[in-house]
Every structure is written in C-alpha cells, then in structure tokens.
Amino acid sequence: MNDSRKPSGRQKESGAPPPSPLRRVLFVCTGNICRSPTAEGVFHALVEREGLAARITSASAGTHGYHIGDAPDPRAIAHAKRRGYDLSRLRAKQLEAADFARYDLLLACDAGHQRFLNRLAPPDLKGRVALLMDYAPELGLTEVPDPYYGSAADFEHVLDIVEPAAAGLLAALKRELK
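Above: the chain sequence. Below: its structure as tokens.
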C-alpha cells in the first residue's frame, strides 16, 4: 500500500527559512576577573534583551590560571551592577585548547591577549581571533585597559568602552544570523 502521507525521509518544504546557526563567543583577558567577565556580562545582557539567547551564547576565559574558580573582582561586580549587569554568577576559567573549536569568535581584550591566542590557535582557526574593540571602531581604541591596579574610574571606563563594543558585536552577529 502506498500511503502518500508517510514521511519520505526528507523534510517538507515549508517556505520558512531554516533555523539560523548558533554563534558562540569567548571573551579573553589575563586572569578572567575584570575585563573579560565584564564583556561577557554586558554582552549577555544585550543578547537577552534582544531575545537571542537561544542563538548567541558567550563565555569568558583568562590566558592564565591565576584565579580559576574565583568570582570577578568585587569592583567589577559593583560597577557592572550599577549599570544593570550581573557578573556575580560568573567564575574564572583558563583558556583551553578546545576553546578554539568550541567558539566561533575569541575576542581578546588587548593586543597581548590577541598575540597569545594567535600563538595557540590551530592554523585553520586563527581567523576566529580578533580584538573586542574592533566592534567599536568609532571609539578609536584597540584595547580594553586593565583596571585591576586602578581606581573606580578605571572600572567605569572599561564599562564605557565595552558597552559600545558589545553592541557592535551583537549588531554584526545579528547580520550574520539573518
């Protein structure tokens, strides 16, 4: 008996576009307690606000394992909280070789991190490494300065420049996902 309602093994053409692929972003700084968790928290909030959490994920890591398992610096948490970002759930982790395959973009906070990532990246995955500030060219900055040894103003400055970079990154990813 030939039943035309039986699945043929092929998907029906519905006219709807196929679901967009997931994009995974990793923010990278030295110890993963100031800059990269701030970038992760800001970016995550923007992604959530846009309703894209099912399609865009993010994380952060440090080039070094100084603070593995620690929460972000209390000053980073406090300054981010004042702007509505919650970093308290984050814990420091160290970059792993598998991260180059796990993430579509590995965004360095400064040129030193970018060099570190490029040295470790498999040759066919080096194109996944970039600077976070590439996504805010209007600021004319290439690096997110380390606020660790600085003042409250330095943590605010990090937020001041990470916010437009995160927004630029999200805009770029949204164009890719269309």
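Confidence is low (pLDDT under 50) at residues 1-14.
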